[in-house]
Amino acid sequence: MKAFIVEKYGKKEALKLAEMPLPVLEENEVMVEVYAAGLNLLDSKIKSGEFKLILPYKLPLILGHDVAGVITQVGKNVKQFKQGDEVYARPSDFHIGTFAEFIAISEKDVALKPKSLSMEEAASIPLVALTAWQALVENARLKKGQKVFIQAGSGGVGTIAIQLAKYLGATVATTASEKSFPMLKDLGADVLIDYKKEDFELVLKDYDVVLNSQDAKTLDKSLRILKPGGKAISISGPPTPDFAKSIGAPWFVKIVLSLISSGIRRKARKLGVDYSFLFMRADGQQLQQISKLIEEGAIRPVVDKAFPFEQTAEALEYVESGRAKGKVVVKLK
């Protein structure tokens, strides 16, 4: 099968189109013919080697974390799915590889594709929606009447997190450039801050939750807009020893992450707020709950651009440029 692979780590390294063997189907897996695949900054970070400490992949590696397609084969222990089902998924770490014509995915990572979505729209959803769900529902337990600050509202995670937070009944503040304001208002954002002209720290205060996706300086400021007992959940780092423990990382990784995150954890303690790092995980059951919200019209995908599969390397460069509003996908069928 054709697939886009990473041969060696490096910021300047490009994805390469290669012929790869078809995946071997395990008894608890489904074989999915890929119709569309979503691209994420995580793909870029893995390609550059940024995550090799916590995700030590063997190279060459087929990249890609989001998929929508049709099941062509099921393993003998699979109970929930059958051949011909239209599905979508974020395959679990060490089982990724959606930039390919076929992928074998554990049954527990898969959900039926919402009927109202096209394959491209469905492929844009899993990673960002699971990130938003695990941050706001599972970790923050966001409640009606609370205030949440979602950074970079026009990005892949931002566009879904705003809609989910509104569905949960929260007041939502976000940062973006002014030209994205109409779209973000339409998605449900209440407070819009033009990051080019305004400092969010001077506008926001006493927030319950911050979903941080930016740099260390932004994270520092984010701690200061929280009320005592508030939560800062970061998807851009720095990772913590708790995170190392949750993924069963070796002892030396725990020590490294403890050192990397000691400054921000100390600042959070001083301010009486909670800091945690979120590295989203695959979860088919949560994805099924997200599907319900999509079918109800509470969440809709925001797709910036669909590239043909042959242009996957260019599509990833476009994601890296930071210009995309919502998600970028590649289309195979």
DSSP strand count: 16
| Separation, N- and C-terminal Cα atoms | 14 Å
Radius of gyration: 19 Å
Tally of helical runs: 11
What does the main sheet amount to?
Answer: 7 strands, mixed
Helix content: 25-40%
- Shape field: globular
Average pLDDT for all residues:
97
Task: Spell out the key features of this protein.
alpha/beta, 16 strands, 11 helices, six-stranded parallel β-sheet, single chain, 333 residues
Provide a short characterization of the protein structure.
The protein is of the alpha/beta class and 333 residues long. The protein has helices at 41-48, 119-123, 126-139, 156-167, 181-187, 200-203, 216-224, 241-246, 251-271, 284-296, 312-320, and strands at residues 2-6, 16-19, 29-39, 61-62, 66-74, 86-89, 102-106, 110-112, 147-150, 171-176, 191-194, 207-212, 226-234, 274-277, 303-308, 327-331. Strands 3, 5, 6, 7, 8, 15 and 16 form a seven-stranded mixed β-sheet that branches.
Describe the structure.
The structure is a single chain. The chain contains 11 helices and 16 strands. It is α/β, with parallel strands linked by helices and 333 residues long. Helices cover 32% and strands 26% of the residues. Strands 3, 5, 6, 7, 8, 15 and 16 form a 7-stranded mixed beta sheet that branches. Strands 11-10-9-12-13-14 form a 6-stranded parallel beta sheet, with helices on both faces. The radius of gyration is 19 Å and the shape is globular. It has helices at 41-48, 119-123, 126-139, 156-167, 181-187, 200-203, 216-224, 241-246, 251-271, 284-296, 312-320; strands at 2-6, 16-19, 29-39, 61-62, 66-74, 86-89, 102-106, 110-112, 147-150, 171-176, 191-194, 207-212, 226-234, 274-277, 303-308, 327-331. β12 (207-212), α7 (216-224) and β13 (226-234) form a beta-alpha-beta unit.
